[in-house]
Each structure stands twice: as C-alpha cells, then as structure tokens.
Specification:
alpha+beta, four-stranded antiparallel beta sheet, 6 helices, 4 strands, 40% helix, globular
C-alpha cells in the first residue's frame, strides 16, 4: 500500500506540462542580461519580418522606462503557451524585474522549421495582456 501511495504521489508531483519559451525569447533574455536593454528587441526579432524595423526598435525606450521604475531585469517565466496551428504559437510570459513583473505576449511563426516572432506586446498591467482564461486557469 505504501508503495502505491508513493508512486501515486511521485506521478502527480512531476510536471505534466513543460512550457516552451522558444528560441527567440530565450535568445532575447540572454542578450538583455548580458548586453542590456538595447540588445533585447533586436535579439527577439532576429530572423523575423520585423527585424530592423525602426518603429519596433523604439520599444527599447519603453523598456528603459520600465527599468527606471522597476529596477534591473532578472529573467522571465512562461505563463502559458499554446499552438494555434502547425505554424503559429502564442506564448504569454512575465519579464521579472527587481520590484515587479511586466507581462508579455509573443506570436511565434514557423519559417523553415525555425520559430520567429511575428508580433509581440508587453505591459505592466497583466489585464492588458492576459486573457481571463489564461490568468485564472
């Protein structure tokens, strides 16, 4: 009986779902931590149609303002991810700073077997990013 209970507890203690951040977000986070805020967006958008787009690159200014208010970037956590089609995936994440988190969403698109970012958004208020069904799962 004890063996059964032990196996039961281990089976339910192990994670049954491992969220996949994808290469773009991991690459961007590493660049941000190593090189600072100006490296984040270019690393995030590498290989995408948005790469080098000046209007998107100016979002580094928004991140700079967030840093001034919330402190240093510490890394990220995946909140939820879902494949919508064989080529499209949505990833909700939290960017962790010294004093609070910033919430983000990225749309991944598979090009030649690799995922790139086709759209992204972030906000300090989770309600602006996370749908209720994701926030209250």
């Amino acid at each position: 009986m004890k063996l059964f209970i032990g196996i039961f507890l281990i089976a339910f203690a192990l994670p049954t779902f491992s969220a996949d951040a994808g290469k773009p977000l991991v690459r961007a986070s590493k660049a941000y931590l190593a090189e600072g805020v100006d490296a984040f967006i270019p690393a995030l958008l590498k290989g995408s149609a948005l790469e080098g787009e000046k209007s998107v690159l100016t979002q580094s200014n928004s991140i700079r303002q967030i840093e001034a208010y919330l402190g240093s970037y510490q890394g990220f956590d995946i909140i939820h991810e879902k494949a919508l089609t064989s080529k499209v995936r949505i990833v909700y994440y939290a960017m962790n700073y010294d004093k609070s988190a910033v919430f983000g969403v990225a749309t991944y698109y598979k090009v030649g077997g690799e995922e790139v970012i086709s759209n992204f958004n972030f906000h300090t208020e989770w309600q602006q990013i996370l749908p209720a069904n994701v926030a209250f799962e």
